[in-house]
């Protein structure tokens, strides 16, 4: 029997439908959304379901509510940030960003990895290191670790093969994992700290060792089981990335 694919919550599906319509020009920035009855009829959903999605859209800054005017599409809808689990190359610019694979290896887990992933000290993890160039300029260093084949196969039998094949592609580990099965209910949590680049990373990114950087540590899980931990090193001058909170 085929495994049942996890599904998004209906309110999330409806949220995404409205956001996609905004991005595609159906509801241009600055325009006022139709009334609740009209919008519910156009989308083929109930008004209570629509109201829940509209609350989330307002919380995330996609729409604003003004008394006497109604719900208005924000002039600059927020870009999808880390909580949307977009690969770093997508966040830096889908057309301008290019991934350069530097390391693709199997290694023993470090202390950092064991803090975040359910792996034993004598176990194995996949390790990928990649440089992300934006318009030809090094803008980010991505260091990613994920659980090895047995744990991946327990989530989806196709994942180990997909990760092995992905090691030969110019993409990050998160991009490979998310692309292997778009229906995986992945979730992520990120922390942001400030530090300096250091000599080794500086050589890779063609910057001095004392260059200030933003370090984002991200843990990606499925149903509360961590699968991947990553460090994204963004030196000063790198393109901005939206990081915002949402439900």
From TrEMBL:
A Pfam family this chain is assigned to: GntR
SUPFAM superfamilies: Chorismate lyase-like (SSF64288), Winged helix' DNA-binding domain (SSF46785)
Keyword presence, Transcription: yes
Coiled coil listed as a keyword: no
Source organism superkingdom: Bacteria
SMART domains, per the entry: HTH_GNTR
Domain HTH gntR-type: 8-76
Keywords, in A-Z order: DNA-binding, Transcription, Transcription regulation
PROSITE patterns in alphabetical order: HTH_GNTR
Gene3D superfamilies: Chorismate lyase-like (3.40.1410.10), Winged helix-like DNA-binding domain superfamily/Winged helix DNA-binding domain (1.10.10.10)
InterPro entries, alphabetized: Bact_HTH_transcr_reg, Chorismate_lyase_/UTRA_dom_sf, Tscrpt_reg_HTH_GntR, WH-like_DNA-bd_sf, WH_DNA-bd_sf
Protein name, as recorded: HTH gntR-type domain-containing protein
Organism: Saccharopolyspora erythraea (Streptomyces erythraeus)
């Amino acid at each position: 029997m085929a495994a049942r694919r996890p599904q998004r919550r209906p309110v999330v599906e409806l949220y995404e439908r409205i956001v996609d319509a905004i991005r595609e020009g159906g509801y241009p920035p600055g325009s006022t959304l139709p009334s609740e009855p009209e919008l519910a009829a156009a989308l083929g959903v109930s008004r209570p379901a629509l109201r829940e999605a509209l609350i989330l859209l307002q919380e995330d800054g996609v729409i604003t509510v003004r008394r006497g005017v109604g719900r208005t599409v924000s002039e600059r809808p927020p870009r999808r940030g880390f909580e949307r689990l977009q690969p770093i190359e997508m966040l830096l610019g889908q057309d301008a960003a290019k991934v350069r694979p530097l390391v693709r290896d199997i290694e023993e887990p470090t202390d950092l990895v064991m803090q975040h992933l359910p792996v034993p000290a004598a176990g194995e993890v996949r390790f990928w290191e990649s440089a992300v160039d934006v318009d030809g300029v090094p803008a980010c260093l991505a260091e990613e670790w994920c659980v090895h084949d047995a744990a991946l196969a327990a989530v989806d039998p196709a994942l180990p093969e997909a990760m092995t094949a992905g090691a030969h592609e110019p993409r990050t580990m998160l991009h490979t994992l998310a692309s292997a099965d778009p229906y995986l209910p992945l979730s992520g949590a990120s922390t942001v700290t400030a530090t300096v680049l250091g000599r080794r990373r500086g050589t890779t990114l063609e910057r001095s060792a004392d260059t200030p950087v933003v370090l984002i540590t991200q843990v990606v899980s499925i149903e509360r089981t961590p699968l991947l931990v990553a460090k994204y090193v963004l030196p000063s001058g790198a393109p901005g990335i939206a990081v915002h909170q949402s439900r």
